[in-house]
């Protein structure tokens, strides 16, 4: 187990500086254009693929960094560049993690390369769990997967919503109900291969922020996938369902829910790190502006009312980063989240990003309110962090119930 450290080692510093260079030279200059276009920034993803940032290898290397700082450091730098473009670059990772976590070696080897494509023909992937009536309440999911034994195929029907890269993905990972009696433990994940009949894109959402990231409904109408597309395989699923039925009988479902919670605790710090990146970006713009903008014959930072805001912004950003790094270190080193530290980090960092980006607009005055300066976009982008991967209310619920020793529901 690695000791918790707040010091990046030489190798991590090198990676951070390289990512920062890409964020500053390639992502940030493209941010306003793709925000206005509200389209996936394919050329930027391709650039990222060319230099090795858009690849499973890169994320795996960061993920297995025993200090736990690899992923948060990478997310902070890319999202510092621009949240919408960065989500287009890392969004495929959500689906890839779904396959890595539940797939067999063969499934990993077959599908993950198809999720990323190659640098001359980049592809993206989508992870489809949320539904119109199942957002925070994942257990109320309705999309159904039924096994057709005669053909060794699964038949999937339902509507997914809010899917990042939904409909434009080469590979979709779809979560569906296989046993409605078991709540979230009766769910299983399926690969829907490229070009599968019955999968189509529904509405593409016009969003408040992260507009360079594609978000859409995914309709599954009698989608048939081979038995080999069930992540983990049928035997493992049958064993898991049998165990879940036993546990549900023994504990009224309590342990089932706690097991689901542990998975989110480990992934939430990464979203916290994205929020830290956006908050830091807005803070830096505001600090620079406050030093150079003069009113009443002096830089506005000479007013305590402005300087104290910057002091609070920086304090909150640093505190958020520390919570994120702690939770990420805990996740990598298998430490139990006895106080829901993963949710804590996501809650604090996402609320900080919303607050700090609003303060940045205030410090830039009229300029902050226009699209001539990037803080207006950053403020719109920051609002997503308190919503996806569990809203702030759900994080508070998870933390409170963990502290109280109550089941998570
Ligand atoms: C841009 C974007 C990208 C996304 N990408 C993906 C993706 O790739 N894949 C995917 O599967 N999903 C994705 N999502 C979905 C996202 O995870 C959900 O939007 C989120 O979980 C919230 O669900 P909901 O929108 O249905 O809100 P609801 O669950 O309906 O919540 C509405 C409000 O009620 C509050 N609330 C609900 N229950 C409680 C409670 N018990 N106690 C207190 N307050 C409560 C919430 O906090 C919120 O304020 C994305 C969403 C967006 C906006």
UniProtKB/TrEMBL annotation:
One of its GO terms (molecular function) is oxidoreductase activity. It is an enzyme of class 1 (oxidoreductase). It comes from the Bacteria. InterPro entries: Acyl-CoA_DH_CS, Acyl-CoA_Oxase/DH_mid-dom, Acyl-CoA_Oxase/DH_mid-dom_sf, AcylCo_DH-like_C, AcylCo_DH/oxidase_C, AcylCoA_DH/ox_N, AcylCoA_DH/ox_N_sf, AcylCoA_DH/oxidase_NM_dom_sf. Residues 126-223 form the Acyl-CoA oxidase/dehydrogenase middle domain. The keyword NAD does not apply. Keywords: FAD, Flavoprotein, Oxidoreductase. The keyword Oxidoreductase applies. Residues 259-403 form the Acyl-CoA dehydrogenase/oxidase C-terminal domain. Its EC number is 1.-.-.-. Residues 9-115 form the Acyl-CoA dehydrogenase/oxidase N-terminal domain. Its cofactor is FAD. Belongs to the acyl-CoA dehydrogenase family. PANTHER family: ACYL-COA DEHYDROGENASE (PTHR43884), ISOVALERYL-COA DEHYDROGENASE, MITOCHONDRIAL-RELATED (PTHR43884:SF12). This is Acyl-CoA dehydrogenase family protein. The lineage of its organism: Bacteria, Bacillati, Actinomycetota, Actinomycetes, Kitasatosporales.
């Amino acid at each position: 187990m690695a000791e918790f450290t707040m010091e990046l080692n030489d190798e991590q510093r090198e990676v951070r500086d390289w990512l920062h260079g890409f964020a500053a030279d390639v992502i940030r200059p493209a941010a306003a254009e793709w925000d206005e276009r509200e389209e996936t920034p394919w050329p930027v993803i391709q650039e990222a693929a060319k230099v090795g940032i858009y690849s499973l290898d890169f994320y795996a290397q960061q993920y297995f960094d025993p200090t736990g700082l690899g992923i948060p450091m990478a997310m902070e730098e890319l999202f510092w560049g621009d949240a919408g473009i960065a989500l287009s670059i890392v969004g495929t990772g959500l689906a890839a993690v779904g396959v890595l976590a539940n797939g067999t070696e063969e499934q990993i080897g077959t599908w993950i390369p198809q999720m990323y494509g190659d640098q001359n023909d980049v592809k993206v992937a989508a992870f489809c769990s949320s539904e119109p009536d199942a957002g925070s309440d994942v257990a109320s999911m309705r999309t159904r997967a039924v096994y057709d034994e005669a053909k060794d195929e699964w038949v999937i029907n339902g509507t997914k919503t809010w899917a990042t890269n939904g409909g434009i993905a080469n590979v979709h990972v779809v979560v569906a109900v296989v046993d409605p009696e078991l709540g979230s433990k009766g769910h299983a994940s399926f690969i829907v291969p490229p070009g599968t009949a019955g999968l189509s894109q529904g509405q593409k959402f016009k969003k408040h922020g992260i507009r360079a990231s594609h978000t859409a409904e995914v309709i599954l109408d009698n989608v048939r996938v081979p038995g080999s597309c069930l992540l983990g395989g049928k035997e493992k699923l049958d064993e898991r369902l049998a165990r879940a039925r036993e546990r549900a009988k023994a504990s009224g479902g309590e342990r089932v829910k706690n097991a689901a919670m542990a998975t989110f605790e480990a992934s939430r710090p990464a979203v916290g790190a994205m929020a830290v990146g956006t908050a830091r970006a807005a803070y830096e713009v505001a600090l620079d502006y406050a030093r150079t903008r003069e009113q009443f014959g002096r830089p506005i930072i000479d007013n305590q009312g402005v300087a104290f805001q910057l002091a609070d912004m920086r304090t909150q950003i640093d505190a958020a980063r520390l919570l994120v790094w702690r939770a990420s270190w805990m996740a990598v080193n298998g430490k139990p989240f006895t106080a829901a530290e993963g949710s804590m980090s996501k809650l604090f960092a996402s609320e900080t990003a919303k607050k700090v980006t609003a303060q940045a607009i205030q410090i830039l005055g009229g300029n902050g309110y226009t699209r001539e300066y990037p803080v207006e976009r950053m403020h719109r982008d920051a609002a997503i962090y308190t919503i996806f991967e569990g809203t702030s209310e759900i994080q508070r619920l998870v933390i409170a119930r963990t502290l109280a020793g109550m089941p998570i529901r």
